[in-house]
Design goal:
By secondary structure, the protein is of the alpha/beta class. It has 10 helices and 13 strands. A 6-stranded parallel β-sheet has the order 3-2-1-7-8-11. The protein has a 3-stranded mixed β-sheet with strand order 4-6-5. Keywords: Signal.
Length: 315
């Protein structure tokens, strides 16, 4: 009888271990992903001051953002049916000038990716405007590339650049000899998506439109870094597997790859990028659709941050 009880106890223990190892709710040794709990994911790659996330979270405040609102409605559901609590926004922005602005929106905690990869002061990683509303807005102060490391970026300088929120900040010095070089951390976007978004845990509850399948949407405006990032996303298969829709602005510039020294004229680099876009849009088994379209309304934003909220909607 004692042996039988022992064997029965072992079987129960093995069954419990099986649930822990393979069950939907518990996994032994699994590292938490930033994407866990996100039904929809918006990736604002080259976010500048983060206004596209505001188009998504607070559309009624931005009546002139017609393109951005239309694209979000098509892929995340209509503004009346979707709920911001179902959406996570990840903002990649390398320009240190915009850090304070993103701190005010950011939801990042000390345990999040920002601390693990890019140490920062506690004040830069604290919950702010959006997290108080139950929305997830994660700021990642880095550029993107086809490898991890550090690359040289340029503040272009000049009155026009200062008046346009430094839109031209990037790895190309447009005004030769007049830019200010800074060393900026970059992440391999394809690998980041594998680590933080792929196989993310779905939330136990969907607050908004339950008929809308989960989506991953990316806006890309990275001032010529797309010549490294898009081919890497395409040929690793990460885009086709994970990203439903990419929209953005692509730049025809001369490109020099720092690690190899290879230089391409803007005509050649543009042709290379177009081939990647055609590849993504034509492969039968690739879920990704990519369009050259963006919304540049509300350059300086100017809309106050939200204060009053109820059921995922804020004023």
């Amino acid at each position: 009888m004692t042996v039988t009880r022992v064997l029965f106890g072992l079987l129960v223990l093995l069954a419990c271990l099986n649930v822990v190892l393979f069950g939907n709710n518990l996994e032994l040794g699994r590292k938490r992903k930033l994407g866990d709990g996100c039904y929809h994911v918006f990736l604002d790659v080259g976010s500048n001051i983060g206004v596209h996330s505001r188009f998504l979270f607070e559309p009624s405040k931005y009546p002139d953002a017609t393109t951005g609102r239309r694209l979000f409605n098509e892929h995340f559901g209509g503004e009346e049916s979707r709920d911001n609590r179902d959406i996570c926004s990840f903002a990649f922005e390398p320009n240190p000038v915009h850090v304070t602005r993103h701190r005010e929106l950011s939801e990042v905690s000390e345990q999040a990716f920002l601390i693990r990869a890019f140490p920062c002061a506690h004040s830069s990683c604290s919950p702010k405007a959006y997290s108080k509303k139950g929305w997830r807005y994660v700021f990642i102060p880095a550029g993107v590339s086809d490898r991890d490391g550090n690359l040289t970026f340029y503040h272009q300088g000049g009155e026009k650049e200062e008046q346009s929120e430094e839109w031209g900040f990037g790895m190309t010095e447009y005004r030769r000899g007049k830019g200010t070089a800074v060393n900026i951390p970059v992440v391999r976007l394809a690998q980041w998506l594998k680590d933080e978004i792929k196989d993310r845990k779905m939330p136990s509850r969907v607050h908004g439109d339950r008929d809308m399948p989960p989506k991953v949407v990316m806006k890309m405006d990275v001032e010529s870094a797309e010549y490294a990032v898009l081919p890497d996303l395409a040929y690793t298969g990460v885009a086709c597997e994970l990203v439903d829709f990419i929209f953005g602005e692509f730049h025809g510039v001369d490109v020099k790859y720092e690690d190899t020294g290879l230089e391409l004229s803007h005509e050649v680099s543009r042709d290379k990028l177009r081939a990647t876009v055609e590849f993504l849009n034509s492969v039968r088994e690739c879920k990704t659709t990519l369009v050259e379209e963006d919304d540049e309304a509300y350059l300086h934003d100017g809309v106050p941050f939200p204060t009053k909220c109820h059921l995922g909607r804020c004023d």
